[in-house]
Write a structure and sequence with these properties.
Helix content is about 25%, strand content about 30%. The protein is of the alpha/beta class. It has a single domain, classed as Ribonuclease Z/Hydroxyacylglutathione hydrolase-like (Metallo-beta-lactamase, Chain A, 4-Layer Sandwich), CATH 3.60.15.
Length: about 230
C-alpha cells in the first residue's frame, strides 16, 4: 500500500483490494487552512478518494469533507452522528455509520472503530458523537490511526490483539497527548512503524517530531517523520 501524508492529521492510503480493485482511502481531510498542505501546494480539488474516514467532527479533521464528498461521491465512514450530519446538512446519502468498538467488513477491507479520549463537535457547535480512531485491515496489513487522543490503557489490548504495521499518533500536546505519552503508546501498541501527526499547525500544538523519533528509537521502535506530500510504502 502507498501512504501519503498531507500534514496535521490528514493522509490517504492507496490499496489494491482483492476482488474490489484499487481504492483510495482518505483520512481527516483538513487541507484548506492546513498550512503544511498549503505550503506544499496540496489542494482538496486534487484528491479523488473512494472512501473518506473521519475520526471526529472538529474543524481540523472535518475540514474539506463536504466539498470532497460532493465532488467525488465517496463513501463516508465515521461515527453515526457525523454520517447523519453529512446527510442532513449536506445531502450526502452515501455513508456508513459506526460507533466505538464496532467492526465492519467492506469489500476492500475491514475497519474497527476504536476508542479515543477526546471531544467531538462540528464547527457550528453541533454535537459530533464520540471521538474515535480506526484500525484498518487491508492488503494483509494492519494500520492504526488513533485519532485525537491521550494515552489510554486499552491501547495495550490493541497491541496484543493485532500485529500493527503502521500507526499514526498525535504528538502536539494541549489538545491531545504530547511526545512523552505518545512514546508510551508506542510501547503498548508495538507497531513496526509509527508516524507522528497533529503537530506544528497552530500555536497550541507545537512539538519537535525529531525528538519524538529519537525517543521512539530509544524505546526500541521505529518512527518516521513525514512532510506534507511525502509518501511511504508499507
Amino acid at each position: 500500500m502507498k501512504v501519503t501524508y498531507y500534514g496535521h492529521s490528514a493522509f490517504q492510503i492507496e490499496i489494491e483490494a482483492e476482488g474490489a480493485g484499487p481504492k483510495t482511502l482518505l483520512f481527516d481531510p483538513f487541507l484548506t487552512g492546513n498550512k503544511h498542505a498549503e505550503e506544499a501546494g496540496i489542494s482538496p480539488d486534487g484528491l479523488t478518494p473512494d472512501v473518506v474516514l473521519l475520526t471526529h467532527a472538529h474543524g481540523d479533521h472535518w475540514g474539506d469533507t463536504p466539498a470532497i464528498l460532493k465532488r467525488t461521491g465517496a463513501l463516508l465512514v465515521s461515527q453515526y452522528e457525523v454520517v447523519e450530519y453529512a446527510k442532513r446538512e449536506h445531502g450526502h446519502e452515501k455513508g456508513h455509520p459506526m460507533n466505538t468498538g464496532g467492526t465492519w467488513s467492506f469489500d476492500w477491507g475491514r475497519v474497527t472503530n476504536t476508542y479515543a479520549r477526546h471531544s467531538s463537535s462540528f464547527p457550528d457547535g453541533t454535537y459530533g458523537g464520540l471521538s474515535s480512531g480506526f484500525l484498518l485491515e487491508v492488503e494483509g496489513k494492519t494500520v492504526y490511526n488513533s485519532g485525537d487522543t491521550c494515552a489510554f490503557a486499552e491501547m495495550a489490548w490493541i497491541g496484543e490483539d493485532n500485529e500493527i504495521d503502521l500507526a499514526f499518533l498525535p504528538i502536539g500536546d494541549d489538545f491531545t497527548m504530547g511526545i512523552r505519552e505518545a512514546v508510551r503508546c508506542v510501547e503498548m501498541l508495538r507497531p513496526k512503524l509509527v508516524v507522528p501527526v497533529h503537530y506544528n499547525t497552530f500555536p497550541y500544538v507545537m512539538a519537535d517530531p525529531e525528538d519524538f523519533a529519537r525517543r521512539v528509537a530509544d524505546a526500541g521502535f521505529e518512527a518516521r517523520v513525514l512532510g506534507a506530500g511525502e509518501t511511504l510504502e508499507v
